[in-house]
Amino acid sequence: MRAIVGRREIWRSLETDSPTVALRRSHEIAASVERCFEEARARSGQSVDRTILKGVQVRHRFEDRGPLQLTSTEAHLGITLREVYDAYMGDPTRDWSPRTRLAYQTTRTRALAIFGEDTPIRSITRAHCRDFIQVLRWLPRNSSKLYPKLSPRQMAAKAEAEGRTDVISPANLNAYLNKLSGVFAWAMKEQMIDRNPAVGLKVPDPTLRREKRLPFSTDQLRAIFAAPLFTGCQDDGHGYGRPGPNRPRNARFWIPLVGLFCGLRLNEICQLDAADIRVVDDITCFAVTAFAETGDSDKRLKTASSERLVPVHPELLALGFTEFVARRRREGEVKLFAEVGMGATGYRSTTFSPWFTRFTEKAGARAPKTCFHSFRHVFRDALREARVDRDVALTLGGWSRPGGSGGSGSVSDAYGSGYRMPTLFEAISLVRYPDLDLRHLHFALQPTSSPSANADAPR
Fold this sequence. Notes:
- By secondary structure, the chain is mainly α.
- The chain has 20 helices and 3 strands.
- It has 3 domains: 2-75, no CATH class; 81-206, Tyrosine recombinase, N-terminal domain (DNA polymerase, domain 1), CATH 1.10.150; 211-441, Orthogonal Bundle (hpI Integrase, Chain A).
- Helix 4 runs antiparallel to helix 5 (98-115), helix 5 crosses helix 9 and helix 13 (251-262) runs parallel beside helix 18 (374-385).
- The longest helix is centred in the first third of the chain and has 25 residues, at 19-43.
- The protein is elongated and about 100 Å long.
């Protein structure tokens, strides 16, 4: 045999530690080796078994008795990347949120276009995944609009040639890689592949995490709360940005204030039920939870540590927040901010966020790297200024402790039942903004004007 293929032995990894899987694969690999032998015999002029060679598509050729390169069975046999994605996206055991499903569908579109939808998943290597990175890193953020008739590879090549700088961010690129790796990990669990070629792949992000979002400056906060919506506007519909006699106190009014004084995430606020405003130890608080007393919940939490009780800040109480809650309950509303509709991604925040961006632009408060999430940065800074104990601060904000999962940084964090509500209320009461004058918000509640029927954003 050495005279034919140039080697005395042929080694081929079965790429598994399972005896059952190894036995099953050994038959196919043995057949692959036999086909290679028959090809070698045919080239040397010897008689061959035409049945073995029948239908074989040779992908690798031998060169002058060099090292033997076996034909990869996976290159023409086995499940394709498209089939894997179809199975993954249709897996009934996965709890998909609309936002998560949309993110995976976006990654799926990119992956199939770059790898090829009929590519056998077993043939995808680490090098292919690095090539995937190379293509993505040169894709402009609006590539489909810029180059509607080009493939991703053509888009990337054109963008690189043009020296474009409006390419997708490292954070977004890493999000693609994370989701691609998630599909491969699932395929491993389902015994479709034996290793994940994308595991651990990520690109460096030069932007520090703390610089991705900045807190609102004092000038921005002043502009936000001096806008007509807070000082007097025409109405709670399209006229929220024009001065007028009305001072509506609905979602648009309360949501920014809750973010400022209590530090809740935007979606945590938008999805609150009226029943989530509770009294615990004689203290009014927000119950940030995915559970609904009605038994049917449309709420979602970011992490396990997000579930918590947060006292309502004294400033919100002074502004009449409890009266607003009582009014919503009298009106029979299940959702505290019912006028904020559900977004296409399954999150109410995706409905409110674009409106808030337009609002800050009209108020003259728009600035780079700031958005509604900047309220959480302002809130965290206020906790630091007040010298609030770090663990108490993490509890109030629902922040995970470094080094742990599910919000626990050490074994000791799992002991006890947490902070008492009076302790949390004392801490949140220390959150103050001495350079922000909100005295104009302290007035008796007035009837809310009726918004226009075709209002374009949540109130």
